Amino acid sequence: MLDKHQGARLANLWDDGKAAGMTEPEKLLYRSNLLGSDKRITNYGGGNTSAKVMEKDPLTGEIVEVLWVKGSGGDVGTIKMDGFSTLYMDKLRALKGIYRGVEFEDEMVGYLPHCTFNLNPRAASIDTPLHAYVPKPHVDHMHPDAIIAIAASKNSRELTSKIFGDEIGWLPWKRPGYELGLWLEKFCQENPDARGVVLESHGLFTWGDTAKEAYETTIEIINRAIAWFETENTGPAFGGRSKPVLAAADRAAIAKKLMPVIRGLISAGESKVGHFDDSQAVLDFVTSTSLEPLAALGTSCPDHFLRTKIRPLVVDFDPAQPDVGNTLAGLPEAIATYRADYAAYYERCKRADSPAMRDPNAVVYLVPGVGMITFAKDKATARISAEFYVNAINVMRGASGVSTYVGLPEQEAFDIEYWLLEEAKLQRMPKPKSLAGRIALVTGGAGGIGKATANRLMQEGACVVLADIDETALEAAQTELSTRYGKDFVRSVNMNVTSEAAVESGFGDALLAFGGLDILVSNAGLATSAAVEDTTLALWNKNMDILATGYFLVSREAFRIFRNQKAGGNVVFVASKNGLAASPGASAYCTAKAAEIHLARCLALEGASAQIRVNVVNPDAVLRGSKIWTGEWKEQRAAAYKMDVDELEAHYRERSMLKLSVFPEDIAEAIYFLASDMSAKSTGNIVNVDAGNAPSFTR
Ligand SMILES: [Zn+2]
Questions:
Q1: Percentage of the chain with pLDDT > 70?
Q2: The whole model's pTM is what?
């Protein structure tokens, strides 16, 4: 019934062969990774696992009981051994003696470091007391969609007992913290035979005497919930469909139009990156009769709304009579209204010591008949926010199908969102990099200068779309960069810059991948050499097509996006020393490069009023890693200077004023400077990166 795995039960993946010979901490790691591998069991970063293990105290040599529990900020699916914090159980128990009551529960977090075993630097999470005080050796806390659907139903207590009898208990909503740990302990003492407990509006706790038993209980209990929904939740999802679903290509086309405009409207404080999701679970929701009322109720599980804000923005779009122009025109007001509502929520709920209001913009944008758009400070966060809202959709689907769905009370939601401990976590986050949230497209992105540029921009936190016509090199470059910086940060598009249609569709793919564009690096090129009397019209046109026309086409597309997005823009042309200084036997190339430079000046003039900056980097003789220099151009240049190809690099170095070779990384550094805010007040400029060449001094 839930998600795309409709009807499928969770498989028991425990392998005795694999677990044999593992230590208890290793079995905990094994169990955690198994549980976290399926989003139906727990959402990304959600839930935690623990084991109480007898170990030798490094100080006294005595055997003591140690709690191994997922540390702060980890994810059970990808956690490694160093992701667990370790704490003395006797010290954790001793904390009860200094606990001053629920109104002081937050101060208990400060005592957790005092309980650290074996100098483990991994910080203990807020959920540590929940695991410590359950008097069982192995404890799982998960956020399964099927269980939260029960936990977020109006009659969740009744449903829990109907489905699980006495095996699984129920506790009313309580913010995770020290007090909830004591509640869990009390529950276990009063119900010694229970195998777990449902926490209202939150999730599931289960336990066992061995790691395997805990794992199998967790799987079994979630499967029972899934099975129960299969038989009970048989009506149409969300009360039935009231709006048509558009065809996939139309959905993508609408998303490409909406995303940059939304992005421009919400990126004033910090640049944001977008994500588009039109999976079946989302489409079921955004075409249903219950879309508006359910969306307005907000999400339930604390994890969900911390990632997605308390509620989404439903975009005014009618898939039965699609008029995207009308929708775009209404967006500024819709977004302003959302911000005002959020500010009002903050004012209603704030306490004397609440942190200042955070970004009031929506994270989730639901578009009827089209799908879901999310925006966050980086791509991974935007994607994960979308995953969380899919979890929330699954929960609403289950709860509203068998009962009445209830969101968390507003004040409770606020107290978690603006929890001082949560704020402290945010304050500890490293300062964002200089290009965080920026989106760049680099043509010729698979080659020497292009790839070095992508690398430099990604080093500073940018998302990059590599555009190239060389499919094999493109794939290799994407693999290399995603291995280094993470898959979320890089995409590639096959783009022939001389084709109007290919340029338009490549930029469209970029918009769909990241939601907008801030930086265009126009770099795709070639070089040819021939005396003018031997220059064929075809050769002349080829240079003009790729260098002059190609630069024009990609710039025009970028300008169109920048103007829609209304957040400025940045264009960097990779031209050449030869655009300023004549070179023997290369009139077609030199003339086309000069055209690029003058095009940049014209665009700088046109773009300035919209805060679009256009600048030029002029490299010279960048041989290393260049695809241009691998072909006959190298031989032709060598011939023109009457020397061997191997002598070229030394020749260019000796020819330069500084007697230095120029590398792709040197060009990338200048591009980064011009693409970043460091050069915020420069436009129409040329930076030569040629180790010094007097004929190409600008004037
Ligand atoms: Zn939880």
A1: 98
A2: 0.91
